[in-house]
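Exam revision sheet. Question 4 asks you to relate a sequence to its structure. Input first:
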Amino acid sequence: MSPSNYYDNIASIYDQTRWMSESVAEEVADYILELVNANPDTSFLEPGVGTGLNVLPLVKRGYSVTGIDISQEMLDQFRHKLKGNPENLTLIQADASQLPLPDNSFDVVLTVHMVHTVSHWQKFLGEVERVLKPGGFYLNAQWITPPARMEFEHYFKAFLAKGTHTPSSTPSQEINVEDYFGKKGYRANYAVAKKWLVSNTVEELLGFLHARAYGLCWRSSDEDFEQALNEFETFCLGHYGSLKTEISSEAQFEIWAYQLS
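Answer key, structure tokens:
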């Protein structure tokens, strides 16, 4: 399944199956605004904007925000949150690896856990450089998966791996954003913008899998996926004691900030 189809399929449930809440996004926005010394004219771009979780607070505060995403359904969900499309928000349905934007257009480019999704990451980072204004910031960020949810996912992957039609995993490409920008004279700063506790019942997490809310859920045949999920649910009853058991652990929002020296 292509990335656009995957995200089109999960657009309506995307926010509820992730662990980034609106209140956390507001606090992260506060951190970003201070980090980049924002003023009322500061402009933001987020390639891979999705449903707008990361930049919605910036739009609501009146900043100029442009979002690009390959999935029209995800962009529609973003507009739905705002009950329309305010003048300070531009949304473009396009492949983020080829930004359809002029040179030197933005004060801040933000990506959140998306560089690994583009076909040619060096080309994409070159595009980021191209659209950044002189002295602008590139913020490469990610939400770190809460360890309890990571463990839950690890268990499920083991059941998926038993499937007869499950393709062997493709080695992930080696991405070194810091090295790429370091060679070009950018200085880098790392910070944890926010830590917060994430809690879900086992039943809720199984529900997210039933909805096939994650990329790993689309790498197997329908038959293998359903068999793995049934076996995994039985495992969860034994391992966690009850589907009502709540598992909690800490998530965090990390940012690597790059600015030309």
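Marking note for examiners. The first helix runs from residue 3 to 10.
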